What we know:
Blueprint: E1 2-4, H1 10-19, E2 33-42, E3 45-54, H2 61-68, E4 73-79, H3 83-87, H4 89-99, E5 105-111, H5 123-133, E6 137-139, H6 148-164, H7 174-184
Parallel strand pairs: 1-4, 4-5, 5-6
Antiparallel strand pairs: 2-3
Helix pairs in contact: 6-7
Amino acid sequence: MLVGDSGVGKTCLLVRFKDGAFLAGSFISTVGIDFRNKVLTVDGVKVKLQIWDTAGQERFRSVTHAYYRDAHALLLLYDVTNKASFDNIQAWLTEIHEYAQQDVVLMLLGNKVDSAQDRVVKREDGEKLAKEYGVPFMETSAKSGLNVELAFTAIAKELKHRSMKLPNEPKFKLHDYVKKEVRGSGCCRF
Length: 190
Ligand SMILES: Nc1nc2c(ncn2[C@@H]2O[C@H](COP(=O)(O)OP(=O)(O)OP(=O)(O)O)[C@@H](O)[C@H]2O)c(=O)[nH]1
């Protein structure tokens, strides 16, 4: 499930992942909730992701609350060009703790890093906040595609690992995987 303030790029991130395209132009806010499916092959196993795109607007909050309980994973987004969306992350985390399952897979994403000239939230600030709450973090761009596939693949890997629970398989650590992959991807050019 994708959550975060209105306009941070949740729908665009999902469309980029699903269709490999960017929705340029006018911004059409999501009404309530929407979903799309995508099948990924992770370590030779097919993982079907049903991805719920929620409305960030306050007036739809009671609708989204109802969906938290059934979510296996949450991608919490802010917009690196919008300080308020970053400042609101703590409030989103409070909601998540209140409504989602205790063991929900959670990842923090700072989106729109292609807009370097408009950036107001530094990468280090995102990293610091994520560290404080013990959640994996990466910066993304639905526009350029940076780290989009990686974010969803990391989630799929964690979910696959959890559902299969093979006794001899070493424990998959989402945090370490994300750190290693982001470091290797040349992500920090923005
Ligand atoms: N430059 C840039 N713009 C983006 C990016 N992602 C989204 N946008 C723009 O940001 C605006 C909002 O994107 P949406 O994906 O509709 O935002 P949302 O979070 O789904 O918004 P709600 O449905 O209201 O919750 C649109 O004008 C997009 O074109 C990005 O990675 N880079």
